[in-house]
Every structure is written in structure tokens, then in C-alpha cells.
Fold these 4 entries.
Entry 1:
Amino acid sequence: MQDISPINWLRISALGVIWGAAFMSTTIALEGTGPLTLVAVRLCLGAVLLLSINLARGRSIPSFRAPGSARLWAFICGMALLSNAVPFSLLSWGQQNVASGFAGVCMAVVPLFTLPLAHLLVPGERLTWRRSVGFATGTLGVIVLIGPEAFASTGADLELLARLACVGAACCYAMGSICTRLSPQTDLLELAAAVLLVAALVFTPYALFMEGLPALPEGRSLWALIYLGVLPTGIAQIILIQVIKDAGPVFMGLVNYMVPIWSVIFGITILSEPLPPSLFLAMALILSGVGLSQYGALARLFTGKTS
């Protein structure tokens, strides 16, 4: 049963801000660390944070011996790989060989990948014409926001493979959200901690092999790295699971349209980046897409009526 309530609208709005600020923080953190090391540190910090919260509650991670634990841990591994380790790896490699912005467009089409998967695999997630048109409109808004340069060729030898890697990351995120929705019920904080722990254990050796043992960053690069581990990774993992469990993966997909807007706003206000001339048109398209795809939920939210 879906629960598209005001609290879940608040949750995805908060995720939009948190993940939107992550782009700015990543730019700052990269001043003092490598891209793969950055991801590994994010995952490790997030895992340590959630494990610490659980220890303070007298809990840890889901038991390996409880009835049904094998099925639960299979889903945990799937969530860790599909929502964290694999797409992070694909994006880290792909963004070295594609035009800036192409990965952003790929993330915007995550909801379009999620729609048919949810229709086939998740009870109650129907693929309707309104949802399809709404998500397509939102995706167009992100493309307008980023601009045609996202599709320009870089001339890199591995550009085609890099583009496929970015698309593959989007597919992973879509499958990860379905995996999260279908996972067995268990304590939310234990589940989130286990997912990040597995992702950190998988990704960190890869980062160490590729970039070696990192030096400790200093100044604002260090603070940006801490922010990335605590909020966009640790706390966001809890909120993400809450939303998908309550409202479903299709509703969760709306956050992919909020993140680019906030990333642009933070870039303008904090990094002094220029205001894109397409910002307001893009926002209008994105908001129209959100309204179309979630018309029924918005009607209940504002009027109490059903669609």
C-alpha cells in the first residue's frame, strides 16, 4: 500500500536539497582527494555513522541467523551493489570520458527506467499515460536545464563506452529502487547501515587499488568530504529507504528532477557560477512533469480529493 503523504513529499524535498548540495560539495572535496577515494570515504563515513547510531540504540545490523535472514541479506547485497557500489564505479569512470552534464541527463532518466520495472515487479505501481507523460516532461526539463552541450562529443577514444557506463548507472539506480521496495521488512536503521557497510566493503578495495592510500585532505576539502559522508550518504540512505518503502520507487524517482535544480542554485549562490538562461523554463517543465505524474497524490495533498 502506497503512502504518498505530506511527510513523504517533505522527505523527497529534503533529499533534493541534500543531494543538490552534494554536487557543490564534490567540487570542493575534489580539490584535496581523488574521485574514487572520495566515493570510498563517503561510503565508509556513512556506514560508520549509521553503525554508531545503531550501537547507541543497542542494535547493530540484521542478524545472519534469524529466520529469513538469507533472503534479507540477498536484498541488502543487491541494494548495496545496485544503489551504491556499481553505479558509483560506473559514473566515476564514465565521467572522465563524456561531456559534463551527460551524466546528469542520465540520472534524470532514472524514473523512466523505473516506470516499466515497477509496473512489472511492484504491486500497485501501474504504468499510466499520465505518469509516462509526466516523467518524460520532467526529463525534458532537465535536458533543457543542462543544455545541448551535454550531448557534445569530447573526442575521447572511450567516449561511447563511457556513455554506456553512465546509462548503465541509471539502470542500476532504477533496479536498486525496485530491490529496496521488495526487500523484506526489518528495522530501518539496521537495513540502511547494512547496505552502506556492504557497499563500503565492496568499493573501498577498488578505490585503494586504483588510487592508492590517500593523504588526509585539509581545510574546506575536508569539511566537504565530511558533509558528503554524513548527509548525502548516511542520512540520505535512511530517508531513501523510508520513501521507497512507504510511497514506492516511482514516487521516489521524482527526486531526480529536484536535484539538478538545487545543484544549479547552490552553484550560483555559493560557487558564483553563472545563472543558466534556461533555468526558469526548465523549472516550469520539471514542475509540470511532477504535477502530471503525481496528480492524484497532489489532489489529495491540497484538496483532500482523489483523482
Entry 2:
Amino acid sequence: MQNETKLIIDVGTNSILALIVKTGHGELSVISDKKVTTRLGEGLQNSGLLSKEAMKRTVGAISGILNQNKFDSVTIIGTEAVRMAENKVEFINLIKSQCNLDLTVISGETEAALSYSGAFHNLDIDKEDVLLVDMGGGSTELIFGSGEMISDILSVPIGAMILKDATATDSLKEYSSFAEIVFAKELAELNQKSPGTFVATGGTITSAGAIYKKMTEFKAPEIHGMRLTAENMREIGQNFENLSPGKRKSLIPFDPQRADLMLPGLGIFLALLGIFKKDEITVSNGGLRYGAALRPEFVVSC
């Protein structure tokens, strides 16, 4: 259907992203793009289960999104937290019974392909020899490509929330060191050269961009396409270290619930920059939800 209003709901490990767009002739017109933090994957690393409380929070947020918006169709997607949970069927059934929606749980590879399509939406960069890093709470997708063609995809089951739970010391150095070991081992099998352009999407890097710009209210157009250096990220991370939870939240007023994930998230990006010997990241506010709107035929269950 041309000129259809679509609602795309990305159910992530840390937050829900809800994108409403009008589509037609291969183009997107964004009506709304919002985030709700629900911590679906809280405790998942240690228990292997989605908690009752986290599922309830998440389903409640989905119900709120449905009730507060108008749209012609809905696509709802589950990623790493749902993929790895032993009780994923319980969560899928809960969404069906309370929201009358069929959650599509996609593979890490499908997530990467959709993220690649969506991350470059309205992003003015040279796409030759590019690495896109899409980091969420539960996993990190690394997509190597050139133009519209993807050459390699690596889905690593570690994101900001999983890294936080897996690491004993809450420090940028510790998170970066731990992440570097994990990613170096995974990347050794790909034998990929350092990319020409390093692009990143996900809540950590867009939040880091907003913090760097000293925003009190998140403004996506000002983030999309900006560049952050490794030194910028170290300075942001160092500001979060050795602070109480309350003071950390004051550093990220537009999304205070993300405060405790900024250090592990930045640690992952610094580890990857070190591995590829790069010093700069281009920030994208696009990603999976945009890819799902542009390429709905790719949204299939794993």
C-alpha cells in the first residue's frame, strides 16, 4: 500500500523504539520516533529468563504506544533479549493476549541487515568500505559493506546491559578491556581489514552525541551524521565514573534511565575503535526500525 502509515516497534534489551512513518515509492516520511526504557533484559545474563516484572513493564509500554498513536499497520520485532530467553514463548504469548500482536523474533543476521538499510537513511557519507556497528543492550551487530552491498555480518551476543552484568568493576577501562577480548576473538575469524568509514547507531552512541552537544532534550536531526572521536568518548565516560546513580542521571537529562549503561556502552565502542585502529565514529539515529519500514520483506522469524 502506498502512503501507508506504519508503526514499527523494536523491542530491545534495554528499551523500546517506536517509529511511525508514512511510506510510499521507497521513501519514508517520519511522523514520530520515540523511545521508552523498560529494561526487558534486566537479570537475563545471570538467570537466562525474562523476569515477570520486566515483561510486565515492556508489555505495558507497548500497550501505551498502541493506545496513543494512529497508524494503518503495526510491525513488532524482538531482538537479542527475546532470542536468548528460555521463556521467550511466555513473553510472545503475553504480547499476543494483551496487545493482540504477533511478535516477530528475528535472527542476529537479519537484525544486522535491517540495521544496515536503516542506519544510512538520510545520512550523507561515503558508503564505500564502511563498518556499521549497531549496539543494543543485549547484542552488537557489526556489518561490513560497500554501497548497498553487505560483505560480512557478525552478531556478537554482548551489548551494554550484558557487559555491565558480566563485569565486576564499573569502570570505562575495565569495560573496554573486557569488550576488546570478546570482539577480537570474534573478529579474528572474519579477517576483515580496517574500514574506511566507521558508523554507529543505538542508544549509547546517540546519547553520547547529545551529551557532547550538551542537550537537555534529545534532538535527533542534530545528532544524525555528527562525528565523535575516541577522545570525546573517553571524556564523556570519565565524567560518569565515580559518581552516584543520581549524579550520573543528571548528566543525561533526556534519558536518565540510561545513565548506568553509558560506561559499558562507551567501553564497547572504544574497544572496537582500538581493534580497527580508528579514531572517529559517525553517529546515525537510524537503524533497525527504519530498515524494517523500508524493507518489510526482510522481517521474518528466526
Entry 3:
Amino acid sequence: MKLLIHDRDITLSDSVKEKYDRVIFADGRYAPCQGCFKCWTKTPATCVMKDSLHEMCRLIGLTDDLVIVTENWYGGYSPAVKNILDRSIGMSTPMSTYRGWQMHHVLRYGRYNSVRIYVTGDVNDKEKETWKLVAGRNALNWGVSDIEVSFSDPLEDVEETEI
């Protein structure tokens, strides 16, 4: 499965949409994670908030190719994209294991997918360093073996994008 999460307020062409099984526009209209951890314990991999993101844990956990297009916010995801990623915590379990010689949560789906992050907007050298660090930590937490960070906007010219 291929999933695109983006915060670009543009209309995607049909040629871009058909490359993905699901496209999620991070418009900031989703409820933020409440930190209740019920997606870990009471309703595994399903958020108790009944909105369009209640299956986000399962969706990201089962994705083979995740593409994130986000505006740079001081070396991190935009608030709208971060909100979506926060709602996916249930793709792991409350149990712990060692990954990369460090303790991390056991992955519920055991997937080793690829993630491509495209950072848009102005990004200075310090922020690029922070992005690479964040992407590396995300890769470790998500059990991803292939992660790539690019500092360009692949949706700028939506007709010729390669994402």
C-alpha cells in the first residue's frame, strides 16, 4: 500500500492521486491525540476518537511506502502533519524491545517499510541537521529500514511530480 500525507493546500492532479492507495490532506481539522493510550490497550490500533483518523495506526502500520510532504517548522513537521503522525502511535504496542541498541516499543505490524519525507519552505543548515536527526529517530521508532529526507517541493509542479 502507498500512502501520501501532505499539508500543501493545492488540488492534486489525477495522475498523482492514482499513484497512491490513500492521500491524506493535513488541513489541521483533525482532533489532536489526547494521550489516552487507548489505541495501545483498550482498542488496539484504533483511536477512540471517531473521526477520519481513527484508523491511522493501522493505515501507517500496514503501509509499504509512506510519503510525507510537510512545510518546515523550525526543523520539524508542520503542526497539521505532526497531528496526523501523533495519531498513529498505536502502530506499536506498549511492550518494549531493543532496536538499534536502544529500547523501543514493539511494532504491532512488524513492517519494515520505506518513508520519504519532502520538506518544503525555507530550511537553513541547522534545520537540515535537525531534520536528518528527526528522520533517523522516526525510522528507528517506526521500524523503517529505508528513510529519505529531501528539501524540495515535489508537489510544486503537480503534473510532472515524481513522488
Entry 4:
Amino acid sequence: MPNTTISSATPTAILSALPQEQRGLIELLQHPRKLSHAGREFWQGQLHGQTVVLALSRIGKVAAATTATALIERFGVRRMVFTGVAGGMGANVKVGDVVVATDFMQHDLDVSPLFPRYEVPFYRKARFDSDAALTSLLFQAACRALESEHAKGQESLATRRFPGACVHQGLVASGDRFVSGAHESRALLAALAGAGHEVLAVEMEGAAVAQVCLDYGVPFAAVRTISDRADDSAHVDFQRFVDEVASRYAQAMIRQLLIAL
């Protein structure tokens, strides 16, 4: 069980999907201390006035679940926040936009006919909610971060490349495959919509972390910068996008969130 008494030193966990995102946060960390646990590296310290633990989720649901469990069991975190990139699925979700998850599901989970398709066995549901209060703060932080980037005008590379970027809230789907073909994307979107799940973005970790946090009673929220439209162009300039846009957004959003906590 998680700690029932939370002190001011109880950390906030910040999970990053990619090393580029984490690197920028580590550089800002005050009094950094690196620890190894469960075959992973964790960074403890102070960030924007908050005690934090930084970790890479690694790729895929199992790896992300292991990391989330380690953060709770080993470090006793009070809340967990995830930043990363995702493929846009919603009709109005564009590359360069940001999606704050209201809930999560596994798009590749199918235990039918024993359970309805997408339903997680023994939970009686397919979707796991993010924490409402933390998600609201994260949404506001994302909005302020993008407003700040837009205010910089031509000084901001992200603004120059994606001047109309905006923040969305909605369902995010996770699966253990990189959705990168237009045909696959359309088929997945249609299958999910047919089951009543209107998905805004697709990635590979969020639903697993949400399930772990539900089990432990730890508030969880996640934000994803849209790097592609989960179609045939999903691989184009991916690394450049992460370096120049997503990592910058992640640092700005985390800063705004930690200041608000």
C-alpha cells in the first residue's frame, strides 16, 4: 500500500518516455542524486521548488508498469506525471498539438469471449481515469506553457513550426505496437469508435501506468505532444521533432505544473 502520511519531502514522480525529454529535466535538477533500482536509473532532487524523482518509463506497457511500480514501492511517490509523444487520432488533433489524458485504455487488449473486447479482466471496465484534480492542473500547465511559447514568437522554434498548436483533453489509447500506417490507423480508430471509445491519441505506455496507479491509489496524469498522425509519415523527422519541440514542451509544462502544486 502507498504511504498514508505524506510529508513535504514525499516526491512527485515525473516519468519521461524518451531520454531527450528526461535529459532536459535532469539538467535543471537541484541537488541531483542518481540511484539504481530494478535495472533502472532514477534521479532524485529538487525541481522548481518540489521534491521529485525522474525516471524513464522505457517503451511498452510491461516496462512502463515496472517503472511505475518501482517508483511507488521504492520511492513512495505521492503522485505520478507522465510526459511523452503520441500519434494523433482525433479528427482535430494536429501535429504539434498537446493532448492531456482524461482516461486511458489498451487498444490491443482482447480477452473475448471471456470478457468484452478491450475490458481489463477483473476490473469490469476498459478505461482507467486519470486523477481529476491533477489532470486539471496539468491541463492548465500545458495551456500556459503553449501560451508562453506563442508569446516568444519567432524566438520559439516550436511556434515557428506549429503556430496554431493547441491543447486537447480526452481518451488516450495504449498498445504494444507503433501505429504507423494509414490503413492500420483508420482500422484502429474505426474499431475503437465502434465500441464507444473516441480516442484522441495513441501511444505505448499510459494505460499500463494508469492501472498500476489505480491499484496503489496514487494520483496519475499524463500529457502527450503529438509528433505524427499515426500514419505513413509517422517516422518522418521523429527524432528532430522530439529534440526541438516535444522536449521543450515537456520542460515548460512540467515547470508550470510544479509551480502550481
